TrEMBL record:
Its EC number is 2.3.3.13. Residues 18-280 form the Pyruvate carboxyltransferase domain. It comes from Phenylobacterium conjunctum. The chain holds residues 1 to 399 of 527 of the full protein. This is 2-isopropylmalate synthase. Catalyzes the condensation of the acetyl group of acetyl-CoA with 3-methyl-2-oxobutanoate (2-ketoisovalerate) to form 3-carboxy-3-hydroxy-4-methylpentanoate (2-isopropylmalate). The keyword Endoplasmic reticulum does not apply.
Length: 399
């Protein structure tokens, strides 16, 4: 369906506020090769807090002493965001997690267990009834140690529906305050994921008392679309990571989620508290500390996300930026629109570039310089400002 600029924007309602849960330091760090030092995690936590991320999942405290120390240190310095640690369903995990988040002004224990047939049979080697008992035990223990408890049904999207409903009911009864239905293997489709939330929210007693969360992996490239569909189905928390890092193909990218909700606020009533101005800084910092480059054409934060080379696009951009940009690069901390000079560039953009470089040429000199520029651009991948200065000086000298 197309949306007209004249359609009224839906009214803002607190019930439509989407909690942004950042898992860059936990699921993101589980990307092979992405480990971060304690100092790097602290710096990242400061950036995330400044961005007004609601929940920072700082690690998996039982995984190693380093992870425990990092979660604890993040809990000590963060005061606005909730600091969360991950724990499996066993007492040792949960108690270690509670200890790590203890210094936090707002702390959360996130405990999980698999509920899908394939995970229960092969990974856990447990009967479904035992899994149900473990949900009750683990969530009750976590709730005795912390007032804010998230429970996740790992592999929820491949779980039999009746068993998922029973599992969620057990977690809510035991005191979970957030219920996460992860698409652990990036398997679901947007419409299917939205229906999953609708079904669970409608059919589980007590569902109206908790927040539902999405957690989408990107194995089919659908993580962001699925997360937004989950919100349309009733979820009000999205778990995501800066630059979309995470297990295998990664998690839903925080920057894409935040901007998709913001830019399409005309269509969807959902909003977040995240301040987009810090997005590019966060992206560059995560790329620097993990050594994972950001692909040039990555939405929002890629080098080319606001770059235009073709003459037709550059001409449109020079007349009105809304012709080819749906958000402003400055709003996400990306600097300015970049009209890249290359073989597809047109005369209009070339003249503007010359102006910016301090040249006002007459028609003949401009034609001559433009021809030389096109010849050069055919041979060279990147035409830099210095190349343009050289060819214009040359054209002026010979003219
Ligand atoms: O992908 C997943 O299911 C997870 C859980 C631990 C939430 O990362
Ligand atoms: Zn995950």
């Amino acid at each position: 369906m197309t949306v007209s600029a004249n359609d009224p924007a839906p009214a803002r309602d607190e019930r439509d506020r989407v909690i942004i849960f950042d898992t860059t330091m936990r699921d993101g760090e589980q990307s092979p090769g992405a480990s971060m030092s304690l100092e790097e995690k602290l710096e990242l936590a400061k950036i995330l807090e400044e961005m007004r991320v609601d929940v920072i999942e700082a690690g998996f405290p039982i995984a190693s002493n380093g992870d425990f120390e990092a979660v604890r240190a993040v809990a000590e310095i963060v005061s606005e965001s909730t600091v969360c640690g991950l724990a499996r369903a066993g007492a040792a995990d949960i108690e270690r997690c509670a200890e790590a988040i203890r210094p936090a002004k707002r702390g959360r224990i996130h405990t999980f267990i698999s509920t899908s047939p394939v995970h229960m049979k092969w990974k856990l080697q447990m009967e479904p009834e035992t899994v149900l008992e473990m949900i009750t035990k683990s969530v009750s223990l976590a709730r005795n140690l912390c007032g804010d408890v998230e429970w996740s049904a790992e592999d929820a999207t491949r779980t039999e529906r009746d068993f998922l409903l029973r599992s969620v009911e057990a977690a809510i009864k035991a005191g979970a305050t957030t219920i996460n239905l992860p698409d652990t293997v990036g398997y679901t489709y947007p419409s299917e994921y939205a229906d999953l939330f609708r079904d669970v929210i409608e059919n589980v007693p007590g569902a109206d008392k908790v927040i539902f969360s999405t957690h989408c992996h990107n194995d089919l490239g659908l993580a962001v679309a699925n997360s937004i569909a989950g919100v349309q189905g009733g979820a009000r928390q999205i778990e995501c990571a800066i630059n979309g890092i995470g297990e295998r193909a990664g998690n839903a990218a925080l920057e894409e989620i935040v901007m998709a909700l913001k830019v399409r606020g005309d269509r969807l009533p959902f909003h977040t508290a995240v301040e987009p101005l810090h997005i590019t800084r966060a992206s560059r910092y995560v790329s620097a500390i993990t050594g994972f480059p950001v692909q040039f054409n990555k939405a929002i934060v890629g080098k080319n996300a606001f770059a235009h080379e073709s003459g037709i696009h550059q001409d449109g951009m020079l007349k009105n930026a809304e012709t080819y940009e749906i958000m402003k690069p400055e709003d996400v901390g990306q600097g300015a629109t970049n009209l890249v000079m290359g073989k597809h560039s047109g005369r209009h953009a070339f003249r503007e570039k010359l102006k910016a470089l301090g040249y006002e040429l007459g028609q003949n000199a401009l034609n001559e310089a433009f021809q030389r520029f096109k010849d050069l651009a055919d041979k060279k991948k990147h035409v830099f400002d210095d190349d343009i200065v050289a060819l214009v000086d040359d054209a002026l000298a010979s003219g």
